Amino acid sequence: MTNDENTENITTEDRILTVKKLCTGLQSLDRKIRKQTYVDLQKYLSDKNIEFNNQDLRTIFIDIHIYVLNGLRDKTETVREQAIKFITYLVIDKLPLNDYYLTYILPVLVERVGTVELIEESEEIRLQIVELLNAIITRYSNTAQLVPFLNDSVTILAETVKDRYPSIKELSCHTIINLATALPNDFHKQAESLIKPVLTCFYHQRYKVRVEAIYATGEIVMHSTYKAIDEVVGPLAEKLFDQIPMVRRAVGQVAARWLLEYRDRYSFFHKILPLILTGLNDEVLETRTEAAQLWEKAGIQFQQENEKDFKDEVDYLIQPPKYYPENVIRPNIGCRGLVKRNIIKIAPGIANELMSWQEDVRLRCAQLLCAIALHAESDITQNLQALLPSMYSAARDDDTRVVANIERASEIIGCFVKCNVWSELMLPIVEDAPHYGHLTVLNGLVRGAPQEYFVPFVEKICQVLSTDAICCSRKNKYQVELIKCVKALAEKNDKGTDNETGYHLFKIAVSVFSLKHPDNVNKINDLEILEELRTTLKLQSVQDLWNLYSGRLLKHINKNPKLWVTVTEEECIFLLTLSNMGEAFGQNLDIIKDILAEALDTECDGESRLKILFVLATVFEKKEVIFDKAQNVSGFLEKLVEDVFVPSLVWHAGATAEAIRTMAASCLQSALLPTDGVELFTPQTLRPVIVNLLPLLVSLLEDASYRSRQIAVDCLALLKENSCRKNIWDTDDLVSVYPEVLKRLDDPTDKVRLCALRNLPLILKNVPESFKDGTYRAHHEVIIDTLMIHFDDDDEAVQDMVKDVLNQMVDINKNELLKKIDRHKPLLRNQKGCEEILENIAGLTITEV
């Protein structure tokens, strides 16, 4: 007989008997035999030459299931592993669908992995048990046989999803989804009991576990009551801050599914919307794209479901608003409708989370605010009062991404909300106690506001910002934001100089420049900002700005200059204005003169006076500019000498007083320097100046500061030069000056000696004719004798300078000079110098003949 014939003759009893005989190996004390028995059983049952009908298999299962299932309790891991493989084969591949088999299998699985106390110690075995359960659920999907085992399945999964082994967690979440799909009509009975176990996976370090847990949560909520969504929305929102894009995408997908399919979605739109809208601003392009597609799909469905409500909008409001933001695609009607109907519930949450202590939360909320504002459009108006305080706070965030989104949200709000609404909400707060967060939001609102509607409000806002309490701040970030507001407001102004806007913007800008924080030196470009302001005011040049507004600004800051100190805001503004106003200086001499007279009073702060005098000296170096279009320059300078220089040059004890005298002399020197095209004094105004200054400058020649002595010499020479041009320099003036300058040749400081030698030829040049008379011969002798002493100086440069002064004496008294040289020549080392002077005298004599 052949093998086939032998196989055919094997009865059912023989087959069952063979299986039973094989099962005796499961009771062996040798683990290898027990393991091999499972292998042999599977091999026998899978023999292609032996056919088992359903009744055979049922009988075999009844006879062997006790021994087989006991293998799951075996002490040896490899035996338990093989037992699971055999059971999987038997239930999934061999046995027909019948809840009878599951009646025996599921309780054992519950026993091994479905209890609080850990029975199955092997992670690999626990994983295989979950795989077996998943396979059973898949095979029995949508069958009545699986329904009785819903509780057992949920019991197992509720524990395995909390397992320490990541792969078990991941597979358990996936199995939960399969279970919900397999029993769509019954899963709701046990769904909510899985929520808390699944939520434990949200914080696992493996991102695949988090992703599966999110999908499982989405499925559970679909089969649960309203309580479930309340419980999971918070943890899901936290996953929007996950570092892995796949996790954030999963949240968006789940939220989109709820928007489309959840039966009570209309009651929970306000909780679901943030989960998907946040994805519209995700860092990853793929996530943004997918979120936009899902969101658009949800909007279309909502529009179709509420077709009657949107009928008018669909029929008549086809085009976007006139000033809709550029480069932005307007969301569909359904998406906008969804947000508009729920913004009143969403806005308080955003306002609260914008001030969260967590950086990621603040960032996502700022991004969400942008999306909400774009969708809600003008409907966000009623929530603006609640949102603005949080926006002010978020605008001061250390994370620049948060600030950027707040700025963007402010622009969008400014585009859609009426200007009178947000201005009435903002301006009282800005006037009360502003910080740079207020200015950041204001800047965004102004930039977003359509110019056509905003123009009537520009002047009012500028007026508020230009008040001293707001624009005079030394805080670095505050200054940057204030300048941004200036730029934004300037762009919106279309009335040129026809209103007060230009002055207010100019005042703000100059105030910021004057009080600029050191950190803002490179951030705030003064010339660039003034150029932008000039352009918007339609002026020819930046100088026109100063010409128009500097006088009014000077009058505004003229508040008790006697009380100014170096940090006084008005003084800082005054000094910057003086330095930059150019030809406007000459147009405002009266107000400048009044301020200087008070600010440089001898009773004022010493450091402040020094600073003002220094700036004034610098300004006087550009007299051809500042006095170009000035009227009555002589009167201005006469008053300045009388009220400022004379009191400042009077000697007072102390180092500060000494420094003030030096700086005042330096400033006077700058003022007296002749300038082409500018006539500083008339003969009538210069004479009183000489009378007042000469005694003080002569006194200054004895000052302790060598710099004061040096400048005093220069000033005396300049006074003499100016007087000669006006023909009012007389002999008395000369006699009062030259002896004091001559004394400086013995000064202990070389710089002063050289300065005196350099200026003596100027002082002795073009002397009054009366001074050349014999009456003043004694003066001539003093001058020549003093010079002859220094003619033999060791320094050749000094010798040459003395020679220049002696040559100047040729014009005053040639004979006396010749006599003195003849007398001193034998005693001098500087024979060469003597010869040159004699040659000069001889040459002049020949010329006269």
From TrEMBL:
All copies of domain Dynein axonemal assembly factor 5 TPR repeats, residue ranges: 26-312
GO cellular component labels: cytoplasm
One of the protein's GO biological processes: outer dynein arm assembly
Molecular functions per Gene Ontology: dynein intermediate chain binding
Ranges where the Dynein axonemal assembly factor 5 HEAT-repeat domain occurs: 323-515
Database matches in Pfam families: HEAT_DAAF5, TPR_DNAAF5
Annotated InterPro entries: ARM-like (IPR011989), ARM-type_fold (IPR016024), DAAF5 (IPR052623), HEAT_DAAF5 (IPR056497), TPR_DAAF5 (IPR057978)
Alphabetical list of PANTHER family matching this protein: DYNEIN ASSEMBLY FACTOR 5, AXONEMAL, DYNEIN AXONEMAL ASSEMBLY FACTOR 5
Record-given protein name: HEAT repeat-containing protein 2
